[in-house]
Amino acid sequence: MRTSTTGRVGQYAALLAYLVFLAFPFLWLVSTAFKSPRELGSLHPTWIPRDPTLDNFRQAFDEQPLLRAAGNSLLAASAAAVIAVLIATPLAYVMARHRTRLAKAATGWVVVSQAFPLVLVIIPLFLVLKNLHLINSLVGLVLVYVVWALPFALWMLVGYVRAVPTELEEAAAVDGAGRLRTLVSVTAPLLAPGIVATALFAFITAWNEFFFALVLLKTSDKQTLPVVLTHFIGAEGVADLGPLAAAAFLATLPSLIIFAIIQRRITGGMLAGAVKS
């Protein structure tokens, strides 16, 4: 009993330490965003700003086109998430229900593709988009995000499809429903939590992506929010810390809100009670 209690206390302590480790950068970012220039230059920094100010936010919007950049990021991330889910959903269904050699090869591609670093694929992607005249284009960036998100979306949705009881589809077939009718009326509604979670993960990945956007977008009117954030760093590497923290804080909020939505959707338990035992 004592050993079990000690182990549980150790687990909770490790979990608390991990949460503190994760929360520290964000809390420090929030604190920095509301500090005055005098506090930012202090030799004795504090967690809570002594004189909270919104000047950093005003300066950030005055110095850089944050709203336009956020609009570009929103457009690219939303389009990439929707297209990736539309492509991945039927493919995931086929891979989960028909375990042929082709499905196994596709599963292997999903696993292997996650091992490729961004630097390895950026040059071929750049050349392809250049031939298609899609450099410095949000359309080209969306295509790259879709290709990059597809393996992960497939991996997630295959697991959700396999969790749907095949007895439901068999019962629909006995009642006279065809394959398409079964997929649309029976399977798809049960996959809703997985589809939503996959789309939101794809959105977050595209929203936070920096490397592809930096290489493929040239003009300031097309740049996304992560790229624009680098403009707060001067030519000599000196960062305008206050406005940078304020802009970074605003850029982080959508990810936090979406993660909260994902948690609710995943724990919804829409499959509970679908099949009678």
Protein architecture, described:
By secondary structure, this protein is mainly α. 74% of the residues lie in helices and 0% in strands. The chain has 13 helices and no strands. The C terminus is likely disordered.
What labels describe this entry?
disordered C terminus, 13 helices, mainly alpha, 277 residues
Per-chain topology:
Blueprint: H1 2-33, H2 37-40, H3 55-63, H4 66-97, H5 101-113, H6 118-131, H7 138-163, H8 166-174, H9 179-190, H10 192-208, H11 211-216, H12 225-229, H13 241-266
Helix pairs in contact: 1-13, 3-13, 4-7, 4-10, 5-7, 7-10, 8-9, 10-13
Secondary-structure content class: mainly alpha
Tell me, briefly, the overall form: globular
Order of secondary-structure elements: HHHHHHHHHHHHH
What radius of gyration results from the CA coordinates?
Answer: 23 Å
How is this structure best summarized?
The chain has 277 residues and is mainly α. The protein has helices at residues 2-33, 37-40, 55-63, 66-97, 101-113, 118-131, 138-163, 166-174, 179-190, 192-208, 211-216, 225-229, 241-266.
